[in-house]
Design brief:
The complex is a heterodimer of chains A (379) and B (518). With 379 residues, chain A is mainly alpha-helical. Chain A contains 13 helices and six strands. Chain B is mainly alpha-helical and 518 residues long. Chain B is globular. Chain B has a two-stranded antiparallel sheet with strand order 1-2. A two-stranded antiparallel sheet of chain B has the order 3-4. Classes of the chains: A mainly alpha (379), B mainly alpha (518). Chain A: It is a multi-pass membrane protein.
Chain lengths: 379, 518
């Protein structure tokens, strides 16, 4: 194997980050569109315009979520096992909300009935609004630590409840996440629409952008108060993964340690600010494509900030800190990481290429005239 | 705590969600190639009817596909939510095909399905055909990787247990990919999907012909479905899973159970056409058998012996005993990892570790294990015979009935006489649900037949679950079943509505029912 084990462990932390960011950029914009749908589309034609901006693409975009799940399963199996079983009801809420999307998109306009269509519009809203909120709440809980531990055979036990996930800091993270996705969706929607829908989306865009900037700032201040986690003593990155072999302490301000040790990493939260602010500014002035790029960079910054703050932790345990899961000891074997690395390296560029082509084919404004002409085939 | 009730509910939830998912998958697998065939005909001949066929059947395909995606999301995450220990224990091997499925197949399929529906006016004919082909390739590759993962559960090759990480680890990726069990499953499963797609088109076309409407459209659809379906049903039967059954022990067990073959017979074994299995006494109260046939089917030879259930239990009883020792040594080794002697002794018996783990259902510690418990664990390695026996027979009977139907449909479509054969059209219409029933029975045989294991010989089902509360499971199970049933009703409503409306729903002005709104 060309790459050694510690390097691959590090690469996989980056790759999971890439997949999460890819998910937030791609599926994020159609979830943002779903969130905005009932508010910026006031009649059936307008709503169809909104839906058809993402109609041909939402399905491909959703695969970022599926593949992200698969990649975490393959690269960090014990994280996949512990997080998804621990966050059981939160995870089910995400899945059940997502159920509304495929059927909402495909079935909504197949029947001429106002109640039918309105039901699916709200279904699409739920499918677009709920998952980002829950992902934000999940990140908020990861930053505080999650109540879990293992027994001798590494069976994970989650000892918290669903309701305690909904604590104030986590809810704030949910707001940040929702605002980030809504901004992304709004900027995209502006790029693909005109007229009334465009104007309403423009206002929503401004709101989402401001909430994102404010929420991110408050979370940044707050996170310095909550206890972070530190590995006490040395850890051997090349060791065989065993999440119970280290000593971990909780310390206020520990989530700031990486920025102190490596000041260059401060560029990542700076990117979050610059990206979001530039997106709002550019979109307000009608430069929607540039705004989409800026908003996407803002997403890199926001998710990157959470990742860099916690590194090397992935899922700290608040009840048994020593059992916390890190990029060094929650991973697959050297061979699996290597194979999955090459698979990702080969297929990811191909995915970006053909997805780009699909957007190019469907490029241009979606108008009321388009919806009328494609009465029988458009969503 | 893990109770039997929790295990049963977790299994029930997985079975329910997987079986719901598989109501939609086979139709997708088959329809997608029929769309490729129809669209190729459009590109080559330029006859508009073929374009209309692609678009109309594509519409129904889309209604089905939406629920395939909906129910599929659950399966990618349910290993984590409900089978946490399984995910930890085998994620090093099992996670890879799932992730590669996403990267290589599902992205392809899902990206191009968007262009399939929305790209008609923006792509050239050849470009659009290419999009449809890529969508079909993606769909089928997706099935390949999922069945590689599933095949590994039946026949776990290319992996080894590591006591340091307390899990199975990948040793040979190519062995996992070219697992003969997975390959046999792939061919059998996608062929069954092709039959389902063909049956769907055949049945609905037959309905149009019975009503004497949209005849040119329906006639061509019927003929394409008949030819494609006949080839596929031959493939399902000839390349049936059974070819894979001799290669591994798991499948020998499954085969013995579904044949109600209690004793090892001298080769070639006979085939039980009908039997009344008696679990308690491990014999058949009644059996009607044909000599030789089983040996021929199962081993493709006249001289290879096939083990009966009693012999498999006896063989597994020995492995359970060694397995108990393996569990003991593992516990000692976990406490003293650098002990070379322990390690050597563990390595000598670790092949049977899974059989020792079977006893964790009955005994908290290996010190509590008695010979009676070991007997019980060995007996547990055989799934219940009667459900296996009957499900398998029903599936095979449906398979041959479909062969007869497609054979006749093809014969009359070559002769051009099927329009005047209402009995054949009615038969095709009545048989619409049959491929679905056969597919679900097939999955039942494959998965129920693997019990008591999630990974054959490696990890028992009762150790695989997440440590959730029983109340959570009742809640989620009710939620899934309720939600899916509601969506299924909506889907059926739309499907029937559009099938009735027919190609007129495209609004091209060439068909019946054009005035109705789509």
């Amino acid at each position: 194997m060309i790459l050694d084990y510690p390097t691959l462990k590090l690469i996989w932390w980056l790759l999971v980050g890439v997949l999460l960011i890819g998910f937030a950029i791609m599926d994020g914009h159609d979830m943002g569109v779903g969130t905005l749908l009932p508010f910026v589309g006031r009649n059936d034609t307008e709503r169809r315009v909104v839906i058809n901006t993402v109609g041909p693409h939402w399905d491909g975009n959703q695969v970022w979520f599926i593949t992200g799940g698969g990649a975490i399963f393959a690269a960090w199996p014990i994280v996949y096992a512990t997080a998804f079983s621990g966050f059981y009801w939160a995870m089910l809420a995400v899945l059940w909300a997502l159920f509304f999307r495929p059927v909402g998109f495909d079935y909504r306009s197949k029947i001429h009935n106002a109640a039918w269509r309105s039901t699916w519009d709200w279904g699409l809203f739920v499918g677009g609004f709920v998952p980002p909120v829950i992902f934000g709440v999940a990140f908020g809980n990861l930053l505080q630590g999650v109540p879990f531990h293992f027994d001798d055979s590494l069976v994970p036990y989650y000892t918290g409840s669903f309701w305690q996930l909904l604590n104030p800091f986590a809810l704030l993270c949910g707001v940040v996440s929702s605002a980030m996705v809504t901004l992304q969706g709004a900027v995209y929607l502006m790029h693909r629409t005109e007229g009334e829908v465009y104007e309403r989306t423009r206002k929503a865009m401004l709101g989402a952008g401001l909430v994102l900037l404010a929420g991110f700032t408050v979370a940044g201040v707050w996170v310095q108060e909550i206890p972070g986690y530190v590995i006490a003593g040395a850890i051997d990155p090349s060791a065989l993964p065993n999440p119970q072999a280290k000593e971990v302490v909780r310390e206020a301000g520990a989530w700031m340690a990486n920025y102190r040790d490596l000041p260059a990493t401060l560029l990542i939260p700076v990117l979050a600010y610059l990206g979001a602010a530039a997106a709002v500014w550019l979109a307000w002035r009608g430069r929607t494509l540039a705004a989409f790029v800026a908003s996407s960079l803002g997403i890199v910054g926001v998710i990157g900030t959470a990742g860099v703050s916690m590194f090397p932790f992935v899922m700290p345990s608040i009840t048994v800190p020593d059992a916390s899961l890190t990029v060094w000891d929650a991973v697959s074997s050297h061979r699996t990481l290597a194979i999955m690395f090459w698979a990702t390296l080969i297929f990811m560029p191909l995915i970006v290429l053909y997805t780009g082509w699909a957007y190019k084919v469907m490029a241009g404004k979606v108008t009321a005239a388009y919806v009328r002409e494609n009465e029988h085939s458009a969503y | 705590m893990v109770t039997e009730q929790l295990v049963d509910l977790s299994r029930l939830q997985f079975a329910a969600t997987a079986m719901y998912h598989f109501l939609f998958v086979p139709l997708t697998l088959g329809m997608v190639w029929l769309l490729v065939i129809m669209e190729s005909a459009w590109v080559m001949t330029g006859k508009l009817v073929y374009k209309d066929m692609t678009r109309f059947w594509g519409k129904l395909f889309g209604i089905n596909f939406a629920l395939g995606v909906t129910t599929g999301i659950t399966l990618e995450f349910q290993f984590g939510t409900n089978w946490a220990y399984y995910s930890h224990y085998v994620g090093d091997i099992f996670g890879a095909p799932l992730a590669i499925e996403g990267l290589m197949a599902f992205f392809l399929e899902s990206t191009f399905i968007g262009l399939f529906f929305f790209g008609w006016d923006r792509l050239s004919r050849t470009q659009h055909l290419m999009v449809t082909v890529l969508m079909a390739v993606g769909t089928n590759l997706s099935a390949l990787w999922i069945l590689v993962a599933n095949g590994w559960m039946q026949h776990p090759v290319g992996a080894e247990f590591s006591y340091e990480t307390m899990r199975m680890e990948l040793v040979d990726f190519w062995a996992v990919l070219f697992n003969p069990d997975a390959q046999a499953k792939f061919v059998h499963t996608v062929s069954a999907g092709y039959v389902t797609g063909a049956m769907f088109v055949l049945a609905i076309s037959a309905w149009y012909l019975l009503h004497g409407r949209d005849r040119e459209f329906a006639r061509r659809s019927f003929s394409i479905a008949a030819a494609f379906g006949f080839a596929s049903v031959c493939s399902v039967i000839v390349l049936g899973d059974e070819s894979g059954y001799v290669v591994s022990e798991a499948q020998q067990t499954k085969l013995a159970a579904m044949e109600a073959m209690w004793e090892t017979e001298p080769a070639p074994a006979s085939f039980n056409v009908i039997a009344l299995p008696n679990e308690a006494e491990m014999k058949n109260d009644y059996a009607l058998h044909i000599p030789w046939v089983m040996g021929l089917l199962g081993t493709r030879s006249l001289d290879q012996e096939m083990p009966g259930i009693r012999d498999i239990v006896a063989r597994n009883r020995e492995r359970v005993e060694v397995g108990v020792e393996a569990v003991r040594l593992l516990e000692a080794l976990r406490a003293d990892p650098s002990n070379a002697d322990l390690r050597e002794r563990f390595d000598a018996v670790k092949e049977d570790l899974g059989f020792g783990l079977l006893l964790k259902k009955y005994a908290a510690s290996m010190d509590e294990v008695t010979p009676e418990l070991m007997d019980r664990a060995a007996r547990d390695t055989i799934p219940q015979v009667a459900p296996m026996f009957w499900s398998f027979r029903l599936m095979v009977a449906f398979g041959f009935a479909l062969l007869a139907l497609f054979g006749l449909a093809l014969w009359h479509s070559v002769k051009g006489t099927f329009e005047g054969k209402p009995w054949l059209l009615r038969w095709a219409l009545c048989f619409l649900p049959v491929p679905w029933v056969a597919s679900e029975l097939g999955w039942f045989v494959a998965e129920y037949g693997r019990q008591p294991w999630t990974i054959y010989g490696v990890l028992p089902t009762h150790l695989s679950v997440s440590t959730l509360s029983v109340e959570s499971l009742y809640g989620s199970l009710a939620g899934f079943v309720g939600f899916y049933t509601l969506l299924l009703m909506v889907e059926m409503y739309l499907m029937v509505r559009f099938a009735r409306q027919g190609p007129g729903s495209l609004g091209t002005g060439r068909y019946l029912n054009e005035t109705a709104h789509a």
